[in-house]
Amino acid sequence: TxxxxxxxxxxxxxxxxxxxxxxxxxxxxxxxxxxxxxxxTNDFKVEKLALAEKKAKNKTETSADINEGSGADTTGDITIxxxxxxxxxxxxxxxxxxxxxxxxxxxxxxxxxxxxxKDNIVHNQVEDxxxxxxxxxxxxxxxxxxxxxxxxxxxxxxxxxxxxxLDSAVQSVQDGGLLLITATDMAVLAGNAPETxxxxxxxxxxKTKCCHEVALRIMLQCIESHANxxxxxxxxxxxxxxxxxxxxxxxxxxxxxxxxxxxxxxxMAYHCTGCDSITLQxxxxxxxxxxxxxxxxxxxYLPAAPPVGExxxxxxxxxxLGGPLWSAPIHDESFVSRVLTHxxxxxxxxxxxxxxxxxxxxxxxxxxxxxxxxxVDKLFGRVHLETMPMLIMRSAILxxxxxxxxxxxxxxxxxxxxxxxLLWDIVRTW
Length: 430
Ligand code: SAM
Prior knowledge:
The protein has about 425 residues and is α/β, with parallel strands linked by helices. It has a domain at about 5-260: Rossmann fold. About 35% of the residues lie in helices and about 20% in strands. The strands form four sheets. It has a seven-stranded mixed β-sheet, sandwiched between helices. Strands 11-10-12 form a three-stranded antiparallel β-sheet. A three-stranded antiparallel β-sheet has the order 13-15-14. Helix 1 (about 25-55) packs across helix 3. S-adenosylmethionine (SAM) binds near residues 84, 85, 90 and 107.
């Protein structure tokens, strides 16, 4: 027969039929997810033990109070749901390569996929860790929305757009639990179909050079809006643009009071169709405290700002309105550092270790309080000049007293809080 065997990480997958989806290019996505989950499950276990201790000590508090308050059970179990599993490769790798996991559920709507997953579980001898499920992903997640049944982590890796799975996912993940979400409909997210983007993600995408970071910020905004309906909110750990897809890792917490801060984490984006500059208009905006002028002290939330006009102040062309975008930080710096250290210390565990180290090193250097970026080619292209070498451009910005970094999403990127006026001044001196 034309059976194919595929080895990836510690898993070996047999594929009897072409009808079950397998994409070798996504090895980086799976490796990165394993690295993230390794750090996450460790933290989560520690948090749960602390909670169990508190529960044991505090006899005046009923266990229901603690459970409802935290939304997490204190059994120490860590269950991961792979809601759209296809071959089961990802689940098998999680079972063999992520520490602290007690159970994994590998689900798929396709019967052929579930049969393939079952064969692969036996082949890899992970029967004790993985359960299969043949169900619609949403139905399965809804069955797990009671706090006693929620998952520590849920992986959503659909074809195209994940938004139809978000309502159920944000309800069936534990307090402090992790959502790992892929989107591959980049044409929609990156500005080629702004209307479709609005109908699917609740935000208008923009045709701009920084479209990949815009895509990440639309995705985060979308998850947050789903979570807010249930008095929950997200904390992004890592947000990656790679190849033809984006992948975000966010923690979900419960707390109605925190949901009031959501508007200050979102902005509308005024995009100039002439020079590609983008001005963000926060939806809420924290009131700037006169003693805290340093944006660093606003923890990445943008301060309230006056309305943006119809025309661009730099080139007098019209603005396009996009968003709302997530304008708070898209990564957790210390979490990223720990994932990076883990991969640097154990490169033999990851087929794509080199790439992970490269990408996470860039992510760690990104200016976390500066949403979006310029690109040198667009800046100079606009005025029909030959592009200035990146190094010279960056030192000019540094010399003017502003920080500058790359974005992992583009080789040509310039991330800086410097005013657009300064960049155009630099361009004019070239
Ligand atoms: N996560 C896999 C990996 O890393 O190799 C790939 C998943 S593949 C892109 C998407 C899978 O979702 C397909 O196997 C498809 O059968 C399944 N699927 C599509 N809609 C579904 C639904 N509503 N519920 C459950 N599974 C679904």
